[in-house]
Design brief:
With 90 residues, this protein is α+β, with helices and mostly antiparallel strands. It has two domains: 1-29, no CATH class; 31-90, Roll (2,3-Dihydroxybiphenyl 1,2-Dioxygenase, domain 1), CATH 3.10.180.10. It is 16% helix and 32% strand. It contains two helices and six strands, in the order αβββαβββ. It has helices at residues 5-8, 45-54; strands spanning 13-17, 20-24, 39-41, 60-61, 68-74, 80-86. Strands 3-6-5-4 form a four-stranded mixed beta sheet, with no helix packed on it. A hairpin with a 5-residue loop joins β5 (68-74) and β6. The longest helix has 10 residues, at 45-54. It is globular and about 50 Å long.
Length: 90
């Protein structure tokens, strides 16, 4: 994780891992979105789901999306996040 000084002074942060970069900001009157959400493409979704559930995170399975396995989680602030992985043919 990389914290940029100009974001830190406003409470924001920048998460970075290789080519993945997520910039988060802060709203004083924040209300989590219950329907709108980002989707993150992941490798190893089943193992990630196991780790999340072991950590006490509520993981919600959803109806299939053609070509993908997917679940939803909420971040600690109540924002909905979709995690999806392409279905690989054998």
């Amino acid at each position: 994780m990389r914290l940029l000084p100009n974001l830190a002074k406003r409470g924001g942060c920048w998460f970075e891992d290789g080519s993945l970069k997520v910039h988060l900001g802060v709203d004083a009157d924040f209300r989590p979105a219950h329907k709108a959400h980002p989707a993150l493409l992941v490798d190893g979704l089943a193992a990630l789901v196991d780790r999340l559930r072991a950590a006490g995170v509520n993981v919600v399975d959803d109806e299939p999306l053609e070509g993908f396995t997917r679940v939803y989680v909420n971040d600690p602030f109540g924002n909905r996040i979709e995690l999806l992985e392409p279905v690989r043919s054998s």
